[in-house]
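Hi D.,

Good news: the full-assembly prediction came through. Inputs first.
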Amino acid sequence: MSIDDIKNVAEILLEYLPNTLKLFAWTLVLSVPVGVIVTFLKRCKFKPISWLTNLYILIMRGTPLMLQIIAVYYAVPMLLAGAKRSGTENWFYTLLGKINTRDESYMFIALVVAFVLNYAAYFAEIFRGGIESIPVGQYEAASMLGMKKRQVFFRIILPQVVKRVIPATSNEVIVLVKDTSLANVIAFAEITLKSKQMMNTYSSIIPLFIAGLFYFVMNAVVTVAFAFIEKKFNYYK
Amino acid sequence: MAILEVKNLSKTFGDLKVLKDISFDVNQGEVVAIIGPSGSGKSTLLRCITMLERADGGEINVCGMNMMKTEKDKAVFAPKKILRQIRLKIGLVFQNFNLFPHMSVMQNVIEAPTHVLKQTKKEARANAEKLLLKMGLQEKAKSYPCELSGGQQQRVSIARALALSPEILFFDEPTSALDPELTGEILKVIKELAKEKMTMVIVTHEMAFAREVANHVIFMDGGYIVEEGHPEELFGNSKNERTKQFLQRYNS
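Then the structure:
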């Protein structure tokens, strides 16, 4: 490959970088709050809810994200096929029938759903570990001071949990940057898919290396960002 | 007037009876020391009175308000509203301080006054400054707990408890996590409070201190109050074999 070819590859990948970044950003922004909700469901005193949440976490962490992506993506066509076979017709299937599975936005939504479901399970476990690591003495001290449950959680426990979960969360975010490449399995146009196509065009492995460089730089940024956040919380131990 | 009345209090963990028929009163301005071997139920007693544990029999009254009583062999607690009022009358100083690590000394002290008593920040700060001055910590207001010695941390936690102006202050082995030098710091502070007629109940292993500062000493063993009385009486002239045996180790 000539220098010009490399430049060309880099430019094309740069063009598809926003797709990778969009998937990363949406997953991060949604899976953290969903993860918080899952944490609370798991800690719910009503046991069936806690058990169901455990099952969900078990499945999400126990099966490959790639399979989960495929499952979510093909859920619509599969449902439609099933409806056709049984001859069922109702508004729901009519609605599903209108979906074009090769539509970019459908693909993207399917990806975000799969990624968020998966990552929320991991984040939930990280947050649970954080909450459970706070000594019981903190709750006791706060309740001796007459603080209400909500106050204890939001003013005493949560701020300490945030500090404690930063390192594990940063790990997870770095993995997420790389996991966005799994989107290529449903032919979503992100940088791994594009680099594979160009690998064929140029009969060279270099496009793959360039894609790798993209991920490397993104994770360098993530690492620096988390180092900064960790430092911000360093004012206490 | 009795600030605290405890009548026939009992508490069981599983099959283990930790407290059996405990009764005593604490009057305004009185300092009561509770001594006894480890596992005798001293801390559990304190935790029941401060509602960190639920007693399962007997009666507790604080400042004339009923916290719990026993009806047909079942412990009945006062409505939440009353318990909340009682909560604000009692303060507790923990063995391992339990300061909020993410808050500065000042924030630790004003947290409850501003968020529970709804004082203004200014008001709470002014009061906190007075308390910190009293504890000899005026220069540490901006420090974080991790930057303080154990003795300083314990003094902050005393200031934090005092910030709610409790009617009675409980200490659960306040010096057990400290070396002898730092222990002295804390005992000095407690003596100061005693001079100001602060009502206090202190669970301690510091016998000399208990003898000096307390008006009344309770010796517990095996979940019972074995003996109680004036410190000179109990320390100097106990008739009880178990008490004598326990104190021997400290007097020698």
